[in-house]
Amino acid sequence: MNYFQLFHLPAQFELDLTELGTRYLELQRQFHPDKHAAGSERDKLMAVQQAANINDAYHSLKQPLLRAEHLLALRGLKISNEQRSFMEPAFLMQQMELRELLAEISEAADPYPLIDEADQQIQQQKKALLRQLQAALDANSPEQDHQAADIIRKLKFFFKLQQELELLEQQTQD
Amino acid sequence: MAYSNKVIDHYENPRNVGSFAKDDPSVATGMVGAPACGDVMKLQLKINDQGIIEDAKFKTYGCGSAIASSSLVTEWVKGKSIDEAALIKNTDIAQELALPPVKIHCSILAEDAIKAAIADYKQRHGN
């Protein structure tokens, strides 16, 4: 299913989140199962199915990485649920170093400067990768699509790091 | 989801954690990661002139299954030739640790780490 089509949005990475939210509410109202309660069994079933599709689509389009994966899948490149290991030594070495920095935070007497340092590094890299992802997806060529897939894989590591850092911050405050 | 006793044992008492000096010519390093969960694994093998793995160390940031998988392979590769080590399959690791299907990728990661380390060794020793 083409989630962009469902939401009447152009199939591209750049997306106005406010517009997405508005479309979501409109579609939700239109296909709310209560509105089809008087219809035939088949109508009711289809409304329920469509309401589920609308929810799935909204959650996928809202998150940049899922949106990018969906866009690639529409172009015939499926990378969600892949089990393949990522092997790029320089990138992984940098991930290892950031993980070590995070490990230091949990042991530091004054963790805040380290938290700031880690946060800055993660945000900076994430921003740069998201820009690259946008450019690769906009190019819309098979070669650039593979490039985009690799950038998504890298971004997943950074989203995970960000999660870990947020967890550490919470623990520090407790 | 419950971890098996073997996973818990390796997780609580990981074998061979640490690093060798990277510039040591007998040390081969394999780095792998799993985008889906953000796990990162480093496996280092100390290989003698006869191509036998004398020692192994690992460092893994990830879930218990990823740590257990890498800890287990450091035990398994010791004393093996690099060709024998290359034959270790993720299914052997998964079976030994009784990994559930959702954690199979951790064993794939450990298998790929061995392969990456061996590739690093071959590249640096020119064959």
UniProtKB/TrEMBL annotation, chain B:
- What processes in GO biological process is this protein linked to? iron-sulfur cluster assembly
Q: Which GO terms describe its cellular component?
A: cytoplasm
Location of the NIF system FeS cluster assembly NifU N-terminal domain: 2-125
Question: What's an example of a GO molecular-function annotation for this chain?
Answer: iron ion binding
User: Which top-rank group of organisms is this from?
Assistant: Bacteria
In terms of Gene3D superfamilies, this protein maps to: 3.90.1010.10
Record InterPro entries: ISCU, NIF_FeS_clus_asmbl_NifU_N
| Short name of any one Pfam family annotated for the protein | NifU_N
| SUPFAM superfamilies for the chain | SufE/NifU
Per the record, the similarity remark reads: Belongs to the NifU family.
Q: What does this protein do?
A: A scaffold on which IscS assembles Fe-S clusters. It is likely that Fe-S cluster coordination is flexible as the role of this complex is to build and then hand off Fe-S clusters.
Protein known as: Iron-sulfur cluster assembly scaffold protein IscU
In the record, what lineage is assigned to the organism producing the protein?
Bacteria, Pseudomonadati, Pseudomonadota, Gammaproteobacteria, Chromatiales
